Amino acid sequence: MAFENRPWVEKYRPRVLDEVVNQKGIIIRLKQFVKDKSMPHLIFAGPAGTGKTTSALAMVREMYGRKMAVNRTYLELNASDARGIDVIRTYIKDFAKARPPADIAFKFLILDEADNMTAPAQQALRRTMEKYTKNCRMVLICNYSNKIIPPIQSRCVVFRFASLKDVDIKNRVIYIAKQENITLTPGGINAIVDVSQGDCRRAINYLQSCGMIAKKIDQEVVLRVAGEVPSEKINEVINTALQGHLQLSIKLLNDLIKDYGLSGQNIIKSIYKELYDLDIREELKIELSKLLAEFEYRLSQGGTEEIQLQALLAKIVLLQDSK
Asked: Which pTM value belongs to this model?
């Protein structure tokens, strides 16, 4: 196959709008644009891995088919790289002002990660969008639409993508595993869905990484590849500290770090994920949440991981009287 060596995210990207899942309302409207051969400027906003770029590419493909391969018809840029005002005033402006071929209505310009563009670049872009609308329609893709300046938002129709449902990610992972002759255990499937957190791209990347080291993927393989810790091990560390056993909790934590190669930030996030499922009083959960926030900030400011994590456990031990 021509794309055999490409990442699985690209290899199994939906080719048409009908294959994009969990965005039914958005897809219906996009298909109407395709049917009418007309559309305004668009903003696709939402979490990573929910189908924003895929929807834009599928729409172009359905509207123009093989014609999209022509350089004068379609251009995709990553705005996090081409983010300066000079790029807007030269490269993007030149593409937008050039007339499209006679057999198509307008050209497509897809700006991925548009929320990383500088403010001056966005100011320059708004005039280009307005002046050359007849020749070129733009699709701005971003995670946070509030980082797009209001003048650009007013020139666009905003589509907000939601995180994918667990069942949709599970079905896609099972399909890809079947195509690649990989065996997935029920625990492995659930682990991939859990660590992906609604991001289908992340789920596929984890599946590919796991597939490189094992043909049978279970929970243990997924958690090691993803840098996640089994919930029972994290709970053991927390409960040991809450029982007042500081030395033992430190030993358990050090074993976790050694076995899974985790950073201090990973540990904090893992504890936070399990915090609200612990069988302890609500007041104690609140205190633990405050401690995690404090030590996450310390680590972000350059604190030594070993010292800060042991200090965190010491603080948790001091909470045992309020348990």
From this structure: 0.78
